[in-house]
Each structure stands twice: as structure tokens, then as C-alpha cells.
């Protein structure tokens, strides 16, 4: 599982940097400040969670855990739902993508909670 999470972390980090550069150079002036801010928020959260997923992958390599696996999958789901919905909203202006964003946020929160539980169990 750690290899899959490592690959997903690297891909997600790459995409976050690429889309961040795209926003800074290609979208400025084309989107409203609100939509550009939403796009930038998506890239930031995607990068934060790419790094978190990298840590989870490395931890799983050292000490496999169901809680770490859950954390990794939740970080992936959160990135797809949270960042993906903000990218779609910013680029299309379709407001129906907005309600998806909080679902991704809950996935992020649950991923961090699973990581916390895994950490507590590793200390014992």
C-alpha cells in the first residue's frame, strides 16, 4: 500500500505545483478575484495533503496499520473532492460544484483523525 500512496503523493504534489503555476500565470485577469482565490486554495490544500500522504506512505513502510491506510485513502479522497470541486468551480463557474467541497474537507479531517489514532497506537 505504501507504494501506491507514495505514487499518489508525488503525482498530487506535481499537479498542485503545475496548477498553481497555471493559476499564477494563466488565470490572473481571466477569473474574478473570488474564483482565483478558490483555485489557489485548492492548490494549497492539495499540496498540504500531498505532503501528508507522503508521510503516511513512509509511516506505512515502517509500521503497517489499518489506521494509516484509512488516513491515506481519506487524504486522496479529500484532495479529489475538495481541491477537485474548487478547480471545477473556478474554471467553469458552475456553482453545483460548491457543495462537494465540504465533503472533501470532512475527508481531510477524518484523514487527520485516523493519522492521530495511528500515531497514538504507534507510541504504545
Automatic annotation (TrEMBL):
- Tell me the domain of life: Bacteria
Q: How is this protein positioned relative to the membrane? A: Multi-pass membrane protein
**Family annotation (InterPro entries):** DUF423 (IPR006696)
Q: Which GO terms describe its cellular component?
A: plasma membrane
- Reply yes or no: does the keyword Membrane apply: yes
Q: Does the keyword Transmembrane apply?
A: yes
Quote the subcellular location field of this record.
Answer: Membrane
Q: Keywords in UniProt for this one?
A: Membrane, Transmembrane, Transmembrane helix
Please tell me where this protein is predominantly located.
Answer: membrane
Q: Could you tell me which Pfam families the record lists for this protein?
A: DUF423
Which residue ranges traverse the bilayer? Answer: 47-62, 74-97, 103-123
The family note in this entry says: Belongs to the UPF0382 family.
Q: What is this protein called?
A: DUF423 domain-containing protein
Tell me which species this is from. Answer: Gilvimarinus xylanilyticus
Amino acid at each position: 500500500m505504501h507504494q501506491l500512496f507514495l505514487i499518489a503523493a508525488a503525482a498530487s504534489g506535481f499537479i498542485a505545483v503545475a496548477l498553481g503555476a497555471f493559476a499564477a500565470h494563466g488565470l490572473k485577469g481571466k477569473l474574478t478575484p473570488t474564483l482565483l482565490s478558490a483555485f489557489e486554495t485548492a492548490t494549497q490544500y492539495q499540496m498540504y495533503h500531498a505532503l501528508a500522504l507522503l508521510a503516511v506512505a513512509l509511516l506505512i513502510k515502517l509500521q503497517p496499520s489499518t489506521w494509516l491506510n484509512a488516513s491515506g485513502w481519506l487524504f486522496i479522497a479529500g484532495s479529489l473532492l475538495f481541491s477537485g470541486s474548487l478547480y471545477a468551480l473556478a474554471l467553469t463557474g458552475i456553482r453545483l460544484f460548491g457543495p462537494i467541497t465540504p465533503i472533501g474537507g470532512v475527508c481531510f479531517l477524518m484523514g487527520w483523525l485516523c493519522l492521530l489514532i495511528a500515531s497514538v497506537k504507534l507510541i504504545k
